[in-house]
Each structure stands twice: as C-alpha cells, then as structure tokens.
Amino acid sequence: MDSIPVELSLTGLVEVLDVLREGIQILDPDFRYVYVNQAVTTHGRLSKMDLVGKTMAECYPGIEQTETFSFLETCMRTRQPASKRNEFEYPDGSRGVFELRVRPCSAGIVVLSIDITEQMRLEARLLQSQKMDALGRLAGGVAHDFNNLLSVILSHGELILDDLPAESDLRRDVQPIMDAADRAARLTRQLLAFSRHEVQRVFGFDLNRALTEAEPILRRLAGSQILLTVHPSAGLGLVDVEPTQADQILLNLVVNARDAMPEGGRLVIETHNVLLEDSSMLAPLDLAPGPYVQLVVSDSGIGMSQELQSRVFEPFFSTKEGRGTGLGLSIVFGVVKRAHGAVWLYSEVGKGSTFRIYLPRSKGDMAPFAPEPEPMKLTGSETILIADDDDAVRGAVVRVLERQGYRVIAADGVDSALAIWAARSSEIDLLITDIVMPPRSGTELARAVRADDPSLPLLFISGYAERALDENALLGPDTPYLAKPLVPRVLAAKVRQVLDHRACYSAPPC
Known about the structure:
By secondary structure, the protein is of the alpha/beta class. About 45% of the residues lie in helices and about 20% in strands.
C-alpha cells in the first residue's frame, strides 16, 4: 500500500523552524527582517515583534559600520552564497560568536546562524591548557639540565672551600661563585614549581595559618601606600599543600598586586570554604565537584586587558620592563595545579584584578610540618653504588662521598649498574640512582635490585621526579629522595640518614 504524503501547514512549518538550534532570518533588499525563527531572537536578544518589519539599522544602531554588514551587502548584491564568522557585542558588553551562512532567495537573502560562543571558549581553554602544559614541560626540562650543572658547581665549589684555609684570599673569589649558584638553584626551584615536576610531600595544612604567619611580611611587601585587609574565614578546611608552597602563593600574589598599584590602593585577602557542584561553575575551572578552600586576593590596581590575562601565567612573561623574573604568577599557577586546584582571574583595565585560588579540601588530618634534623655524623665506611648518566654529576657525587670515607662504585646508566650489581651485590650497602636516565629509568633499576635484595636501602636523586615517586608502588611517599642541585653536606647527611635508618626504609611501613 502506498504511503500517504503528509502535508505540513504553515503554522506547523513555523513550529518546526522555531525548534531548530540554527537561527534562520530572511532579509529583503532594504535589510528589513521578513522572517526570523526563535533561535534568532535568542542570538540577538530581541523578540520577533522587535525584529520583523524593521531594518537591521533600526534594531541594531551602528551595524551599518561593521564588517559583517558589509559582508551581507556584498552577498545581497552579488547573489552569491558565502560564509563568515561573526563576533557580536551585546549592549551589556558581553560577546557572542556566530557562524554565518548566507544564501540568496527570492525575497532577498537567507542568513543561517549557529551560536559557537561556548565552543570557542572551550577551544580557547584547551589551547591555553596545551600551551601551559608545553611551557611546563619545557621549564621542567630546562630546570633538570640546570640542576645537573649546578650540582657540579656547588659540589666542587664546596670541596674547594673545605680545602682552603680560612685566611686564604682565594675564598673571596670562590664564595661569590657559590652564592651565584645558590641563587640559580632557587630559580630552578621556581621553574620546577611552575612545571609541577617537584616531588610533593602532602600535608593537611591550614591556609589560615599560613596567612596569619605571613601577614607581617605581606604588609611590608605591600608598603605603606597600600591598605591591606585580611579576612580569614572561621572553620576553614585543610588543604594538601606544603607550608612553603602556601607562602609562595601568598607572596607572589601580593607582589603582583603591589606592582599593579604604584600609586597605592586597596588590597584584600580572604579565605572561604566553598562547595562546587554547579556545572556552570566547574566547567571554566576544569575541576571535579566537591568541597574546596578558596583564597581570594583582590586589588584596586591598573587591571589587565584580555590579551594580558591570556599570557599572565606564562613563565618569564612580565610587564615590569626588566624588573623581576616573570615567574611569580607562573609559580602560583604551577603550585595550584599540582595540588589539583584551579586559578580564576577576573580583571578590568583601570578597575583592578581578582585572583580566586581553589584548592581541594584535604581528606586527612593536619600534620605538623618540621624539617628533618640534619644528622651530626656525615662520614661512613659503607659501599655505595651510584647510577647517574651525567658524567660530571656522577663524578661530583663520587668525590663528595669518597671524601666522607665511603667506598663508591659508579655506573653511567641502568645497564652498567645492573652489571655491577650482578657481580658485586654482596658488597653494596646503598643504591643511589637518578630517576631519569633514558632509555631506562632509575625506578626500573630499583625494582631489579630490590627483586634480589628487598632490604637494600635506596636513595633517589633527580632534577625533577616526573611523579615517579607517587605513581610507583615500590617508591611511596616515604622513599628517600634528594632533589638536585646536590650540595655536598646535604648529600652526605642524607646518605648517612638513609644508612642509619635502613630498617625503616627497606621494609614496608615502619
């Protein structure tokens, strides 16, 4: 049986067109709206009554001077199909982005429009995320290489100083070298904070505590011309950041605010507990739903343009004309991202800036933070296997440890270390290994030797850890680790500490 065609009434056709996501508008040769569907009214924020029968100029004053209107005039005149992306500014200052497709018709032209504002926002956020990730990898790689070089400078420099008499004139020449190397080491730590390649020891920490303890310093940093007000929220949740990292966030945000107010102004710091559940709030932050601790730093400074806001977290980017390193806000970005948080920035030129830091609330209890005491004894007679693919670093470690009385066996990579282990495992009391030694890793070496001797103490060294300590079950958060650049006394102290506590380090939790 043949099917019966269904005739669609004009009313039914209008209903169908009104449910389309794509806007449909018909313009006559005078650019008067002949027809618009419901999507067009949403896109233009005007009703059908406001549009139909009126010209575009009447509905949107000033549109005749725009590039988009010139584009429509050309399409009307040539009767040729065309496409264009149109960015539209609403009276309230917000913007929308639309994909336009124009086709000629008997009444004039048909303009089809799709709102791609959200798509463009998501693409921009993805590109920004990819750019920051690439910059982070670059910064981490640069810091890793510099840490190897600085390990050599600091190690041999300290060995020279140890050999020089206190009254030697050469000490005046060597000490500035050591001081410069120390400053360079601090710079690489800032790069690693941005790149998120530092090893993080997580604590349940009260951000209000950091704010209270740092407030006198923050006031001195801000200066007398700036009115600093602090509003800590009572009952603030704990966060999984180290105290030093909390200080980095506060100090860098205050310095940034101060520099934005050269003539003085107001600076407000607040903390809050917040619960993020609404997808409209979570999507721009790229966060999971849940409870967060919020740090808000607002200033009444010069503000930032959209272009500046898009670059402000890049390392070495600065508007201070030679002053500073350009790392302040990139450090904030790196520390927050490592803690699985987010940074939200709102700024208007001439009206100031507000930074909102979101940090996940800790699931653990607050743990007291105290640096490990340095062992008094630095010497020993044990046999140590050191594996590092950098010849200069490896040589420096050998020199430092042999001077402390240890027997040291050196390997230039995983394969040579495994060969030494196979031949001399009974002699070896400690394995020191770099983590990153392409094409194989120090964690692979550690697994292999631990398979033979589960009680062998380990000490990992690296310019950056690439999260190996967190992701490998063998290398838990209590695994001894020493960040490069290596300083002789610190290295000797750590080696002695690991050897003295081998019972703890070589077995499951003590």
